[in-house]
Give the backbone structure.
Amino acid sequence: IFGANDGIITTVAFLIATMHAISDSATLLWITLIEIIAGALSMGAGAFMAKRSESLFFRNELNREKYEMEYSPAQEIAEVKDFFENYGFTPEERDMATQRITANKDKWLQFMMKEEFGFHQHTFDPAWISGLLMGTSFIVGSLPLLIPVLWWGHTPETVAVLGATLLFIVGWSRYQFTNQKPLWAGIENLALGVAIMGLSELLGRWARHLMG
């Protein structure tokens, strides 16, 4: 959803602004295709690096916890007790829970990583998958916006209407993950897109004025 939404907003803003500076539809089409490819590569690379950095950080902290459990077990056990105390356990309950957790090193390690960093095993998902999904979703969101250029040439109004429709649909689908009301999620996304389209229109007019 994030990748598709970014693809729609980026491409519709680019098209609306660029239509004021480029009169040839074929040139506009090719330049927009380049923008879509560049945007998809950028988003994909960003998602890849973000996921890889997260994974490397997780692994570093995992190794650090293993080292501390091996060479400073008393300190780590005290931390486990502190966690249970913060949950409201009585001293007896705290000690019993701590003993059970620390009796198994694998469970102890998982407990420490979850409580200290909120990390779970899914953090090890391959970074290239995140990059591929982000780049692909950017392209999927962007490509439909070329339809008005292919069929009607320079029609910023048509591009804006199609972009607004796509943004509403993407926003509406977001409710499944955010627990928002579908209509409100769509309107919220649409409002953001309309604001960006308006700024893009002003930018395009300003650029045309500067170009004489």
